[in-house]
Every structure is written in structure tokens, then in C-alpha cells.
């Protein structure tokens, strides 16, 4: 598939396809026309009065006028000086998303870069050349200055990139791919660096992962309900309708569908001495559902940003070039912080469910820690320790980054969003949640196996069958870490969800 980049109409699916799927991207004729029209405005202004980003310095140096014969140097100097990041490289999928999204903004025709600049960005993506972008340097205003400067540096043939599975000098990779460095003209250094593309790319990727994880959280919770000999009655549609939060309704529906026809649940429906299940079981739809609603908000914010022109100054169709604040990433930072809080709580309630499965005083007749020979064997005991450590980490990561502004650039940029930090920690929360659910899945599947000869629901049986292709069932203690890693990878690949949906059809 080749993605036709017009500027408007880019979706989260497009971002994921380029970042993770390696899809090629080409500019449409409409995008090329908008780029050329905006560039003509910039070139006219370059001959007239001082215009920020065209014939002046940047930031607190905006009052310094730059003569025409030094403006190409100005743009290259901007890129080189702003490529000041430090730390480990960010993930290749993030850099690919960032490049694609910067080309998207240029294609909207409000930045004034030549068509060849947007084409040069897409040549990096299409040639599998990924600039090395250090983790630290973005404050989320003016956008992702340092990370985007490291990308722009590659267009100059400078810096280092990942190419062919190796880290090489950029000029070497460009030459191997049949590409050449470009020379930036007025406004183009600024147009390449003044955007929220890294932040937006990471929010899009995290939103996609979170959507998959929240469905998986419902599946794993259903397996735990059976493993604990719980009831599905609190998930009834009429009870859920009394509190009409949309995410809650979706999660409860998933639980009902996964548990439909469960012989385990039916076996104790009328003669159970327990009046009701614990909150971590009974309230799973409420917590998972609230996270779904938070994700819906974050996805809406990402969608608006995908429709936005992010640069400064902006080139307007009537010929004006106006300074603005669209590069400030507060909307993205707030959304990322909120989503991190919500996903951390999905992990927290999963940890409480897991603890009940392993505790012989609360797991309704199973052995301590699901061990085959308690005392000699420890079963899943330390798996819960691992989950507790990740839950604690997620609680620290749930502290908002977006309230931590620090002034920069001689007090010209005196309030910044810190949204880059918000999405970086959101990605960690996502990874931790997947691992937490993996441990709950392995433990609760073992609990169901130990309930034999009672049979689980068809959907949960399908999930356990998929798990058993990689992870053995109950037995003597063995090296546990590889089994947990296998479960994590099954979740990442969507295999558990696919197995369940072979019975239920598509879950929400």
C-alpha cells in the first residue's frame, strides 16, 4: 500500500501504517500545489520588510535582521544548533511517525517550504533511513525543536541514521539510497523544526496500543472471573444502563460476551455462600470503561491535531505571514497525562484481581499461589511481585508532566507544555500494563485449568488454548520469566484477542 499524503485527512491508522508497517508515502498533486503557492508567498516576502523566520533570527533573536546573502546559512545554522538532544535514541517507529507528520504539516501549505523539502522528508521514510533522535531536548514548545532538528539534520547530509540495520553516517546512507543532501532556503529550517510531530506521533501510537490493551483487559478480567468462581451478574446490561457511561457499557458487554455460557459460572449460580464479589471483580467495567472514555478523549485530541497546521510563523493564503502559538503542545500533553493516569489504574485493578487468584484465603479452594506442591513449590508467587513493581512504577509515571513548565530562550518562551515528557512516560505505562495483563492471564488461565473437570466458557477456552501454544499449564515450578514474556508477546501480537473473537465475533 502507498499512502497518498494530501495534508488533510491523515488518520491514526495512517500514522501506524507508516511508523510500524513501513508503508510508502507520496505527495498528491493537491499537496504539491499548496506547497508551491505558499512558497511563492515566502519568496515575495523575502524581498520586502523584515519577517520572522524569513529574514530575521529566531526566538529571542527575532529582532536581528539577516541580509539576503546569509539566509541560507541562517537556516542551516538553526538546524545544527537546535540538534542539541542528548540521551538514548528514541524508537525508530517514533522517528518514522515524526517524519511523516512533519511532511503532513508542510503539505497543508501553511509553512512556506518548497515541495522538494517535503519530498526529501518522505524519501527518508521510503528509503528506510531513520535519523538518530536523542530522547531529551523537547519541551513541547516551540513544538519538538531538538528532535525535529535531528531529523532536519539528515536532510543536510549530516548526523547519523539507522540504515540497513546499522548506525551509519547520514551521507553514507543517502548515497547508498541514491539520494542527495538539500540546501535549505528562507523559512525552511524553521518549518522543519517548529512542530508537535514527535509528540503527536507517540500519542497516536499509544492510543492504538491502549485501544487493543483495553479489549485485552476485558478478556483477561473475564478469565479471572471464572478462575475465582465469580459471577457475571453485575455485568448485566440493565444494571449497566443505570449508569450510562459509554466506556463502561462497552467493557461490560465484552465481559458478558466472553463469559457467555460458562459452565464454571453456572456451577455455583444458586448455591454460593458469597453475597457479592470484591470490587476488583465487580467493578472491572467501571474502571476499564472510564479508561475507555479517557482514551476516546485522547483520540479526539489526536484527531484534531492531525487536522492542524503546526508551525510558526504561518503562511496564509492572502499573503500574510503571521506569528502564532499553534506549536504549543498543551492539548497533547494534557491528553497524554490523563491517559497515563487511566491506564495506570487499569493495571492497578488487574493487580488486585491477580492477588485474589493467588491468595488461598480468597481464591475459593485453589492452592496457595497456584503451586503444585506448596512449600516445595512457589507457583506464581513472584509473578505478583513483578506486577506490584510495575504498578508502583506506573503510579510514579502517572504524575503529570504537563504542569511542570520551565521558561527558556531568555524568557521569550516563558511557558512550555512538557508534552514530550508526557507521551514518553505514557508509552512506558502502556508497556507496563501489557506486562501486568500478561501475568494475570498466565495466573488466571492456570486457575481455570485447576478447576477441572469444570469447563470454562467457549471464548475463555479459546483464549487459554492460544496461550497454551506458548505457555504450559499447571505443574512443578519452572523458569517463569520466559513464560511471562511469551504471554506478553501473545498480547502484543493480538493472538489472544483473535482467539476470543473467533467465538464472540469482534469485541469492542
Report on this model:
The structure is a single chain. This protein is 56% helix and 6% strand. The protein is mainly α. The chain has two domains: 2-195, Fumarase/aspartase (N-terminal domain) (Fumarase C, Chain B, domain 1); 202-310 and 344-504, Fumarase/aspartase (Central domain) (Fumarase C, Chain A, domain 2). The strands form four sheets. Strands 4-6-7 form a three-stranded antiparallel β-sheet. The chain has a two-stranded parallel sheet with strand order 1-2. Strands 3-5 form a two-stranded antiparallel ribbon. Strand 6 (160-163) and strand 7 form a beta hairpin. Helix 1 packs across helix 9 (197-227). The two termini are 27 Å apart. The mean pLDDT is 95.
Key structural traits:
508 residues; mainly alpha; Fumarase C, Chain B, domain 1; Fumarase C, Chain A, domain 2; 2 domains; three-stranded antiparallel sheet; two-stranded parallel sheet; 20 helices; 9 strands; elongated
Uncertain parts: none
The CATH class of the largest domain turns out to be Mainly Alpha
The end-to-end distance, rounded to whole angstroms, is 27 Å
Sheet of most strands: 3 strands, antiparallel
User: Level of helix content?
Assistant: 55-70%
Order of helical and strand elements = EHEHHEHHEEHEEHHHHHHHHEEHHHHHH
Amino acid at each position: 500500500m502507498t499512502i497518498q499524503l494530501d495534508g488533510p485527512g491523515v488518520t491514526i491508522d495512517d500514522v501506524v501504517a507508516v511508523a510500524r508497517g513501513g508503508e510508502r508515502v507520496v505527495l498528491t498533486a493537491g499537496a504539491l500545489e499548496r506547497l508551491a503557492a505558499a512558497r511563492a508567498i515566502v519568496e515575495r516576502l523575502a524581498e520586502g520588510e523584515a519577517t520572522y523566520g524569513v529574514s530575521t533570527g529566531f526566538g529571542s533573536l527575532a529582532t536581528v535582521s539577516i541580509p539576503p546573502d546569509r539566509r541560507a546559512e541562517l537556516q542551516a545554522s538553526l538546524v545544527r544548533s537546535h540538534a542539541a538532544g542528548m540521551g538514548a535514541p528514541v524508537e525508530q517507529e517514533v522517528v518514522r511517525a515524526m517524519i511523516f507528520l512533519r511532511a503532513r504539516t508542510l503539505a497543508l501549505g501553511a509553512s512556506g517550504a518548497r515541495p522538494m523539502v517535503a519530498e526529501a522528508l518522505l524519501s527518508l521514510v521510503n528509503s528506510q533511513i531513520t535519523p538518530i533522535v536523542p530522547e531529551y531536548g523537547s519541551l513541547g514548545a516551540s513544538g519538538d525543536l531538538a528532535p525535529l532538528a535531528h531529523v532536519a539534520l539528515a536532510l543536510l547530509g549530516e548526523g547519523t541514521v539507522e540504515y540497513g540495520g546499522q548506525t551509519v553516517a547520514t551521507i553514507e546512507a543517502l548515497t547508498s539510497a541514491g539520494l542527495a543532501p538539500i540546501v535549505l532556503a528562507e523559512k525552511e529550517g524553521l518549518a522543519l523544526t517548529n512542530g508537535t510531530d514527535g509528540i503527536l506521533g507517540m500519542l497516536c501510537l499509544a492510543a492504538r496500543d491502549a485501544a487493543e490493551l483495553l479489549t485485552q483487559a476485558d478478556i483477561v478480567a473475564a478469565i479471572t472471573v471464572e478462575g475465582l468462581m465469580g459471577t457475571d451478574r453485575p455485568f448485566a446490561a440493565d444494571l449497566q444502563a443505570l449508569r450510562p457511561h459509554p466506556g463502561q457499557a462497552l467493557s461490560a458487554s465484552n465481559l458478558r460476551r466472553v463469559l457467555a455460557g460458562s459452565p464454571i459460572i453456572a456451577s455455583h449460580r444458586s448455591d454460593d455462600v458469597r453475597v457479592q464479589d470484591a470490587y476488583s471483580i465487580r467493578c472491572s467495567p467501571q474502571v476499564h470503561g472510564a479508561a475507555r472514555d479517557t482514551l476516546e478523549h485522547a483520540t479526539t485530541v489526536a484527531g484534531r491535531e492531525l487536522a492542524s497546521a503546526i508551525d510558526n510563523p504561518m503562511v496564509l493564503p492572502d499573503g500574510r505571514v503571521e506569528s502564532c502559538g499553534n506549536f504549543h503542545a498543551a492539548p497533547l500533553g494534557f491528553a497524554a497525562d490523563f491517559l497515563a493516569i487511566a491506564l495506570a489504574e487499569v493495571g492497578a485493578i488487574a493487580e488486585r484481581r491477580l492477588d485474589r487468584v493467588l491468595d488461598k484465603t480468597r481464591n475459593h479452594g485453589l492452592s496457595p499461589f497456584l503451586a503444585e506442591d506448596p512449600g516445595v513449590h512457589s507457583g506464581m508467587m513472584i509473578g505478583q511481585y513483578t506486577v506490584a513493581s510495575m504498578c508502583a512504577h506506573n503510579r510514579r509515571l502517572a504524575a503529570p508532566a504537563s504542569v511542570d513548565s520551565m521558561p527558556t530562550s531568555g524568557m521569550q518562551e516563558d511557558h512550555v507544555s512538557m508534552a514530550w515528557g508526557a507521551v514518553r512516560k505514557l508509552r512506558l505505562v502502556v508497556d507496563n500494563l501489557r506486562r501486568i495483563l500478561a501475568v494475570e492471564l498466565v495466573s488466571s488461565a492456570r486457575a481455570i485449568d485447576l478447576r477441572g473437570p469444570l469447563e470454562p466458557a467457549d471464548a475463555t477456552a479459546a483464549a487459554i488454548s492460544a496461550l497454551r501454544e506458548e505457555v504450559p499449564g499447571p505443574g512443578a515450578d519452572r523458569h517463569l520469566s520466559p513464560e511471562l514474556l511469551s504471554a506478553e508477546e501473545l498480547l502484543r501480537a493480538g493472538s489472544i484477542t483473535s482467539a476470543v473473537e473467533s467465538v464472540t465475533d469482534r469485541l469492542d
